[in-house]
Amino acid sequence: MKQHSQGLNILDLSYQVDGRKLLDRVNLTVHPGESVAVTGPSGSGKSTLLMCVLGLIKPRSGTVRVNDRDLTSLSGGRLTKARRELLGMVFQFGELLPELTPVENVALPVLLGGGDHEEAYRRAASLLDELGVPAGSTPTGMLSGGERQRAAVARALIARPAVLLADEPTGALDPEAKQDVAHLLFSTARHHNCALLLVTHDESVADQADRRHELRNGVLTEVGVGS
Ligand SMILES: Nc1ncnc2c1ncn2[C@@H]1O[C@H](COP(=O)(O)OP(=O)(O)OP(=O)(O)O)[C@@H](O)[C@H]1O
């Protein structure tokens, strides 16, 4: 019988570089509204795991399914379209355009995808409001680091993704902004019913996730929260 599953479903994912197994039959399910943090030594393959989910790296074997769609079987324009519809990504340094206003930055993915301008700007303003970012005419480059990361979370959510991926989203922030952004990231993902998969070196951020996993020598192991 075929099993249906919403959210993110990684099955037997393997990937190696120069003969080193970075991912060795990795399995992970993240349900809608649930958060999973992945920690592990530097160079253990955490970012590679996210790149495989995004389809930017082709795994050697295994599948990545989002809302029951097999992303690993897609390529070219179909992969780009599925990625735009199903996935949102927050990077360590926001990757926002500094000259644009926060609303323009957040609306951009929808506009580039040919979406309705008015609806995109309205939703961008609403998300920025929810995340407490000033949505005026100030260029994004003038905002504080924490405000820029909150704008990056808003941008990742603009297309109503099923899965939100975050790679060291608080890595460039001071301790106060870090806690603020981490809290908003977890609570907003839950509120929007996204499956959140987050990579971090920060124990205090990882502890806020519903579940924690560690990636070491290619093996992803569940660890107790707060241990
Ligand atoms: N295309 C590639 N060619 C060669 N080596 C690569 C390639 N991609 C990744 N690597 C290597 O694979 C390893 C895993 O990299 P990755 O960035 O996924 O680790 P990470 O766990 O996210 O590390 P960090 O915590 O330092 O960010 C590193 O040793 C990296 O140098």
Fold and architecture overview:
This protein has 227 residues and is α/β, with parallel strands linked by helices. 35% of the residues lie in helices and 26% in strands. It has helices at 46-54, 76-86, 102-112, 117-130, 145-157, 175-191, 203-206, and strands at residues 8-17, 20-30, 35-39, 61-66, 69-70, 87-90, 163-167, 195-199, 211-216, 219-223. It has a 6-stranded mixed β-sheet with strand order 6-7-8-3-9-10, sandwiched between helices. A 4-stranded antiparallel β-sheet has the order 2-1-4-5, with helices on one face. A hairpin with a 2-residue loop joins β1 (8-17) and β2 (20-30). α3 (102-112) crosses α4, α3 (102-112) runs parallel beside α5 and α5 runs parallel beside α6. The protein is globular and about 50 Å long. The model has no long low-confidence stretch (mean pLDDT 93). The protein binds adenosine-5'-triphosphate (ATP). Residues 17, 22, 40, 42-48 line the site of adenosine-5'-triphosphate. Pfam families: ABC_tran (PF00005). Residues 8-227 form the ABC transporter domain. This is ABC transporter ATP-binding protein.
Number of strands: 10
Helix-strand sequence: EEEHEEHEHHHEHEHEE
What is the helix tally?
Answer: 7
User: What ligands are attached or bound here?
Assistant: adenosine-5'-triphosphate
CA-based gyration radius: 17 Å
The biggest beta sheet reads: 6 strands, mixed
The CATH architecture of the domain at 8-100 and 161-223 can be given as 3-Layer(aba) Sandwich
- CATH fold-level topology of the domain at 8-100 and 161-223: Rossmann fold
Q: Give the neighbour order of strands across the main sheet.
A: 6-7-8-3-9-10
Strand percentage lies at 25-35%
CATH class of the domain at 8-100 and 161-223: Alpha Beta
Briefly note the structural class of the backbone: alpha/beta
Shape descriptor: globular
Uncertain ranges? none
Helix percent reads 25-40%
CATH homologous superfamily assignment of the domain at 8-100 and 161-223: P-loop containing nucleotide triphosphate hydrolases
Distance between the amino and carboxyl termini: 38 Å
